[in-house]
Amino acid sequence: MFLTIALMICPSAGLAQNVTSPQKTKPVITDSIQKPASKELKKSAAELTLTPAELNLGIISFEKPGEGNFNLKNAGSGSINWSTQGPDGWKTLEKRSLSGLLKSGTDSLKVGIRLLTREEMPFENRQDNLFVDTEMRIESKNGSIVCLKKFTAGPHTEEIIIDSKSGPKKVLTTFVIAYTQKNPLIKLNPLRLDMGGILPERTVSKKILLTNSGKDILSWSVAVRKHETGYTPDDLQRGRYLSFVNEDVKGSGVYAVPGHIKGMIELTGQWFERNGYPAIAQGENVLEINFNGTGIILYLLSCHKKGNLAISLDKQLIDNNDFFEDVEVNAGEILIADKLSNGPHMLTITSKDNPLVLEGMKILGTETFFFPEKSIKIFPDSGATTRQTNYLTVSLNTKQMFPGLYKDDILFITNGGEAIVEVFAEILPDIVPKVIDVYRYFNGSDYLFTADPQSETKRLFQNRYAKEGIAFRLFKPDTPGTVSFYRWYNPQRKSHFYHYDNSGGKKDLRGYILEGTIGNIATSKLTNTRELYRWYNPQTGHYFYSTDLQGVKIDKKAYRFDGIAGYVK
């Protein structure tokens, strides 16, 4: 009876099994049952994903709120619970969180931002013309939460954390608050102006952007402050301010350290540019500053008080709990240290998943002078502003100014109060570095650099060197900040080596013959100098030098990068 039923269900398969191996029917049945089960085991666990990572809500004003949506998706199987208490640092009107259950498909989280009118604000905040109470409402199909926070006019970035069993997820909301009050209020950018290093008898110019953060017309005029004879700034005003802005990369999205601070700053991690300034958002990122002085102040365009920052000075971790107490969430300055021993120091800041935009730094401990009267001019020096942006040109004439560091204030007098822009500059010694052309010759993997090919005609001819042209420029002897650049030759290897240390800088120079100096090289970055890079081939013992970091003429598999040989023109 059993055989008849089996043949009726699957006659051919049943007959074949019965004829060839009547005892082996179970493996076939077991195999057909177990395959779907194995597929179930391979399904991934529930995981919450959010898009986009950054939501731009645009310009926010009293008349125009902003809103947008984050999309929530379960990237795995099963269901997942999520919850949020809103953005970090905001005050919630009700002590509760927003939560939901996500199974399959997607869900949305709507974020809306609006400015509260004076009538809606708490009474104690209504007289504060610098800040406006801002409301963020976060909604899902399960409900909503409302949060409040005080802001000034300008760009802002806020972080929202969504918790789930797959771990916390961070998303960003960005927006610009346009007008926070009816009364006129001046807004200046930048608040600190770095004019750079300038030679005497020169004139340089920079721009200041002036806008009105109020609705009424802003009437304004400017003047450079006058100082009493013998007056000197206090310790925290003294020093050299250095801006991190790089005008050459503005708008590219990719940040590069500008030349005037390249020897002082090292950035590692995922840095990008925001309006020319260095910025970070996610991942672990490190800022290292090497400076000489008695202290350092760091200026921020955007930061979070409760951000995950580790700060160390001279490799000693320091407590940073108090650093952000007096710093507004989206702008401010941090006095990292003062009253240090006057000398070299290293500041290291490690940021992990913390939105941060850096403006610049001030190195303390150097003598600072005020600019001579009438050396600074501003055009235009007065006006009336409603909603337009005024571009002011600040010109500095260094005529009859002696070398040193200078600092002064531009005072803005308006019908809405006063404001100040600090101006900094370094007047350089009136020494025009005299440079010499250095020519490159080669024979195979041997590269010979010389500033005087005529005197080396015999050597070049006998060794069959081919001329490539000017490789870079060195300095003449006695140029401040430079030292002799020596040349060695190994006749067995047919290889040249170059170094500013007459002992070879701890290199193994057995078999090398010192041929003398070919000029002077800078050992630290001077104005308008560039790096001379060195590569080494461990198989052949040959060295290669170039101002091109890519080393385009060498085999990258054979040569390894061997550092910076110095700085050249």
Morphology call: globular
Main sheet: which strands, in order across?
A: 1-3-7-8-9-5
Number of strands: 41
Average pLDDT level = 81
| CATH homologous superfamily assignment of the largest domain | Galactose-binding domain-like
Q: Radius of gyration, rounded?
A: 34 Å
- Structural class per helix/strand content? mainly beta
Q: Provide the number of structural domains.
A: 4
Strand content: over 45%
Instruction: Report the biggest beta sheet as strand number plus sense, adding barrel if it closes.
Output: 6 strands, antiparallel
CATH class of the largest domain: Mainly Beta
Helix content class: under 10%
CATH topology annotation of the largest domain: Jelly Rolls
- Please identify, by name, the CATH architecture of the largest domain: Sandwich
Low-confidence stretches: 1-42, 121-128, 326-331
Terminal-residue CA separation: 100 Å
Number of helices: 4
Helix and strand arrangement:
Elements: H1 2-9, H2 11-20, H3 26-41, E1 48-51, E2 54-60, E3 66-74, E4 80-84, E5 91-92, E6 98-102, E7 106-115, E8 132-140, E9 143-151, E10 154-164, E11 169-177, E12 186-189, E13 192-198, E14 203-212, E15 218-224, E16 240-243, E17 265-268, E18 272-274, E19 277-280, E20 284-293, E21 295-302, E22 309-313, E23 316-318, E24 332-337, E25 343-352, E26 356-364, E27 368-369, E28 376-379, E29 382-385, E30 390-397, E31 404-414, E32 417-427, E33 435-443, E34 446-450, H4 457-462, E35 466-475, E36 482-490, E37 495-499, E38 513-522, E39 530-537, E40 542-546, E41 560-568
Parallel strand pairs: 2-11, 13-32, 27-31
Antiparallel strand pairs: 1-3, 3-7, 4-6, 4-10, 5-9, 7-8, 8-9, 10-11, 12-14, 14-30, 15-29, 15-31, 16-26, 17-20, 18-19, 19-26, 20-25, 21-24, 21-26, 22-23, 22-25, 28-30, 31-32, 33-34, 33-35, 36-37, 36-38, 39-40, 39-41
Helix pairs in contact: 1-2
